[in-house]
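Pipeline run #58 for the internal structure catalog. This entry was flagged by the ingest filter as a single-chain record with no existing model, so it goes straight to prediction. Upstream metadata was stripped on purpose; only the residue string is passed forward. Reviewer on rotation: M.T. Logging verbosity set to normal.
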Amino acid sequence: MQRIINDPLQAVEDMLDGYFQANVDILKRSNRNKRVAVSNYMHKDKPRVAVVTGGGSGHKPAFIGYCGKNMVDSVAIGEIFSSPSAKVFYDAFTEADMGMGVACLYGNYAGDNMNVKMAIDMAGDDDIIVKTVVANDDVASASHDEREKRRGVAGEILMWKTAGALANQGGALDEVIEIAQYTIDRTWSIGVGLSPCTLPANEKANFEISPGTIEFGIGHHGEPGIRVSDLKDSSAIAQELVDYLIADSGLIAGDTVFVLLSGLGATPELELFILYNDVTKVLTSRGLKIFDSLVGNYFTSLDMQGATLTLMKVDDRTQPLLAMDVYTPGLKVSHHD
């Protein structure tokens, strides 16, 4: 395994040193905790609801990459594929709080659930009000009837987008929480893996996908998918991904969707746009309208080959929030007259 690193055990620290330098105009490292990123666009003399997230490293640009203007105010950063500690989440709350409450929006993983809960208790001692929404958009991770058990994956980005926009428009804490829940309840994701990923400190991949096969529904940490099949062409993969999401979501002809197609880290953009083209053909054939789309590496899994397809049903409530300008390392949206 050939890598561009120094000490594998210091890979996250070394990465963060570079990340903060490269994005100095957007975010900074907290003086309180070196594992907390803070947006430069948060001004405590102009109080509003704060939006916080966090999670393990290895999913760049998630999570730190969405810290910035009109999106996330502070981010708790964990080790690779490991939750940030309760202290790191607590410090992220403290850094972001402007006296109007904190909306902590994160993915459904056991470590994150436990540490966020402890951090909220710690913040309560400081009279910081924290409310949460737990993303669970990964349809392959549990049945439709057990949605509360599903993991959070790339759909989190759209949740941060709408909630961050409303917070910056002056929404109250309960309103920001409500729009975040409204967004994730209308968001569905599924992944397909073509190759495994390898942690920097390891010489071997942390799971296996045999050459010539694909794993449908695979998780971002290599969690088992729904089935393994022979490698197919892009059009067949697109058909299978869209069919599964439509069957689970109940989307029908005439609905309008936001399409997010994220690579998993080692998939060339050439392949992502081929797959996106095929996805749009299937969506159109099913009578769905596309409001907007993102194609690229937005929520990855180190060097895994594959992609995650996310569909969000949009409406008059969410469309203006999704369209609002943002300026973060991982996502830049700007509209000009």
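catalog note: The mean pLDDT is 96.
catalog note: The two ends are 49 Å apart (CA to CA).
status: ready for reviewer M.T.
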